[in-house]
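Consider this record:
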Amino acid sequence: MKILLFGEYSNVHWTLAEGLRALGHNVCVVSDGDRWKDYPRDITLRRRWRTSPCGVNRALGAALYLLRLLWLLPRLRGYDVVQLINPVFLDLKARRIAPFYRYLRRHNRCMVLGAFGIDKYWVLGGLDCHTFRYSDFNIGSELRHNEYTALMQREWLGEKGELNDLIARDCDAIVSGLYENDACYRPHFPQKLRYIPFPIDLGLIEPRVRSAADSVVRFFVGVQRERSAYKGTDIMLSALRRVEAEHPDRCQVTVVESVPFREYIRLLGEAHVQLDQLYSYTPSMNSLQAMAQGLVVVSGGEPENYAILSEDELRPIINVQPTEQSVYQELTDLVEHPEQVETLSRQSIEYVRRHHSHTTVARRYLDLYSSLIL
């Protein structure tokens, strides 16, 4: 099968591509590497000078990007399946993306939309205050208000939302990668939607069961400054600093900000525990990568996460509620009982092996793709 994966989030498409290739399929990944994260890809499509203060540079960058895209178009034809990472799969205004979507639709057999992150339906699911008990946009019946949630509403309930609707209605299938994505899309597109977990390439990871044998628990926090309040990193780090102040001889804290993927993984490997995404029900790609290495993850491990995977045995994730006190209590318990680290570490490795192996995930994608091209 000939497959084109367009765009990148958190190494999802490249990892899936490697799984599909291992099963004998021809795969091409086109992306910008998810910007500063610089994930691998086969064809680079990156917009230069996007944030330059000089208007001339920005205009030149946009023009060069369009020329590069137009030059690439003939190479993006004749695929059995084209999968988009998001409705906004190009670094262009939404109204300018629609013609490129139609081109891909016209010159390839099947189109699949990835529901892997923020889009119109993610925003709507958070804003309705009943899809989730808490989310990036709500806590119970109360809406969260910060700069990033306001920006997402402006963008996705406007022009981007119209593009999202166009692609979701027209494509052949929609794949959700998290429970949250699935819950947001299922009321609208139940016949098109398929849940498939995110892939992790276990061949690139040397799992190591962690043990805080010296009673010092090493914590790792990755910060994206512009999204810290939105993702709850600010609250988690504040709770961690409280625990560190109370148990200075039993905590070691590493905080990194916006580092490339390879450096991130290196630093992560030295820790016992990763803190990630306060408002999620499910572990992210970063968390799954950490769990595969044997780290214990403090994040979203709600019952819905285990139910959608049909997992009724393992419970490796330290699930926290979206409050500083909940995070503080869980971290305090871990520091005061460091023997938990080894048990949770073993479960983390097995959890990823059981549900997220990139070849196992790739087979599920192939089942979907095959059903579309018959």
